[in-house]
Design goal:
- The chain has 348 residues and is α/β, with parallel strands linked by helices.
- The protein has 2 domains: 56 residues, no CATH class; 215 residues, Aspartate Aminotransferase, domain 2 (3-Layer(aba) Sandwich), CATH 3.40.640.
- Helices cover 47% and strands 14% of the residues.
- The protein contains 11 helices and 13 strands.
- The protein has a 7-stranded mixed beta sheet, with helices on both faces. A two-stranded antiparallel ribbon has the order 4-5. The protein has a two-stranded antiparallel sheet with strand order 7-12.
- Helix 1 packs across helix 10, helix 5 packs parallel to helix 6 and helix 5 crosses helix 9.
- The radius of gyration is 25 Å and the shape is globular.
Amino acid sequence: MVAKTLTKGLKLYQLTRKLNDMLRDPETGAQAARLFDENADLAFVLARELTDITAALDNSASNAALDNATGRGHGPCAEMAKMMADAYGADAARLWTGGSSTANLALAQAVRRYKGGRTRVLYDAASHLSVTGALAIADLDVIRVRRDFVAECAVQRPITADQVRRAIGADETIEVVWLTEPTYDGLLADLREIKQVCEQHGVLLLVDAAWGGFHGLLKDVGFPESAAAIADAAVVSVHKKGLGPSQMSVILFNDPTLVSSFDAVADMGFATTSPAYYALAHTEIRISHFLTTEGQADGIAMVHAARQLGQELNRIPGVRLIRPDDLGASIIADPCHVLVNTRVSTAE
């Protein structure tokens, strides 16, 4: 896929540099010249291959070797996008080298285009700045839903299905729900129940799943199902969990019309025409690793290490490990997100 194409390019470049050095060297120049004389097609093949790979390494809009960098074409990037969609359980994926922040900006514009104008959106009041900004820039009509605060733990619960149900029941003009799952405390509500509520009212469900890079990918070894497998669209910031370099994210879709709207917005300039293909290659290699038996074993080791860390911290006077059960029924936690409260007195 992307990594293989870039690797081929680097090898061809190195070979060409070596041949060039041979031609310049008095001791090897004659030998190299004879090689080309006796193999007339060799120079042509190298020139053609090098030209093709130069296109692959060139960060430009027209790129025949790697195709559209968001994964909409028929080349290595498209293969990578399909791998990402399959890994997270979504129908389609768009690769993004502008981080989750610009992905959210583009997604909000896509929602406006999808709905044909200004739309009422119910969103998490504790959303990331990029979601709040995206809603404002797209001039969408918004209504905030606040998270419940559990005072004894000093932690906010994620938005629940009951909250979404009540909000939609009180305002039937809501057409989109945009949540943050997992929260920055590593907590999730029952997204399948939330999706069911949304479907009952014909409402789109979008999720800022920035911190959910391992969700779905490692669901067989203790991680939750990915929001991308449930929501109409979800944005995952893969770099936050070391699955790619900084700024690498992916937008995952289960609504084909929303995908089309997003692509149209991307073509207006929201998707960079100078993508860093090395970022895609790095992410492809990392995601591929965690799909292997060895990668799944690494996931098990991660969960074990996090659990052990939590237990050790919980033994320290004045430190309390916060568990999902402390926050109420149906709350799920990222197994590698160790959440503690340090305001508990030693007397407790």
